[in-house]
TrEMBL record:
Binding site for ATP: 12-19, 38, 120
Primary residence: cytoplasm
Role this protein plays: Catalyzes the 2-thiolation of uridine at the wobble position (U34) of tRNA, leading to the formation of s(2)U34.
Protein's organism: Candidatus Desulfobia pelagia
Gene3D superfamilies per UniProt: Adenine nucleotide alpha hydrolases-like domains (2.30.30.280), HUPs (3.40.50.620), Translation factors (2.40.30.10)
Subcellular location: Cytoplasm
Residue ranges of domain tRNA-specific 2-thiouridylase MnmA-like C-terminal in the record: 272-346
Protein name per the record: tRNA-specific 2-thiouridylase MnmA
PANTHER family referenced in this protein's UniProt entry, alphabetically: MITOCHONDRIAL TRNA-SPECIFIC 2-THIOURIDYLASE 1, TRNA 5-METHYLAMINOMETHYL-2-THIOURIDYLATE -METHYLTRANSFERASE
Coiled coil region boundaries: none
Site positions (Interaction with tRNA): 121, 330
Amino acid sequence: MTDHSEKKIAVAMSGGVDSTVTAALLQKQGYTVCGLYMNLGLPGLEKQVAKVKEIAVRLGIDFEVVDLSQAFAGEVLHYFRKSYFSGRTPNPCVVCNPRIKFGRLLNEVHKRDIDVLATGHYVRNEWNGSMWQLKKGKDSRKDQSYFLCRLSQEQLKYLVFPLGGWRKDRVYQTAVALGFHDFGGQESQDICFIQGKSISEYFSVDDDALPKAGEIVTSEGKVLGSHQGICSYTVGQRRGLGIPDSTPYYVVGLNQEKNQVVVGKEEDLWEKRLLVSDMNWLGGSAPRLPCVYTVKIRYRHDGAPALVSQTDNGIEVVFETPQRAITPGQFAVLYDEDAVVGGGEIS
């Protein structure tokens, strides 16, 4: 399948402006649109379903709720919990996209005899004559290609992203022109299931597996204070340490075995090298390495040039200049200009 000429298409609808405009655009292009809402077992389900249903009625499209709550709990929430309890800082969106939205939900789309799934992501999916290429969205402020670095060719060939070439302000203007005046610049939060809580508040204080209080130490092992659980900390964090000094301390590492938060000064946060595990290559196989790519170490990172090599311990990334707060558990995503080459977990 090298084009998307089918007349039936499913749209993953969240109740937000992006998925609403996506559905409307596809209608205008002549598609028969079916809206699907993922029930992930989160609070406020009835209110959100009612909101999406109202949008579907106004657009005049079929609408259905797909229950993916069990899969979401087993594959995303479990990963999130396991990562934090092991001293890593997870990125649940990177895991959710290939497993749930473009995994389980795409399977449900196929069960309904619909081949193509569309979402409101700000990315582009282009066929180059031999494979699908996932590219950055034209609006650099909203580009979401980082979060889709774990997709496969088998998934990409069934996906369309109508907003990939759009700017966000144009999306809002289109929504108003369609008669939707109630979005008001609302943006969805990055971690949908946290819902305004801190990480420590999200995890139950009665959970026996929750990391307990421990020491805050320097890299030399000097004890400077105490913490109430390593899951409340991440590399680069400054606030909440409670260590007075002439210059601030930052979290530079988490030692799960000793239940310690390791701190240092600003200069200790800068490194040139990292290792990546469980690498996913969007082309289906590894490119010829070593090779220089632009590498992002978190969503809001601008990306920096680095030499990427294959080693016995995984993929090694060596930046031309040091980068701040390289964080185990986050994902390193490789780009060739604006195309995603691959992504894996920083180990």
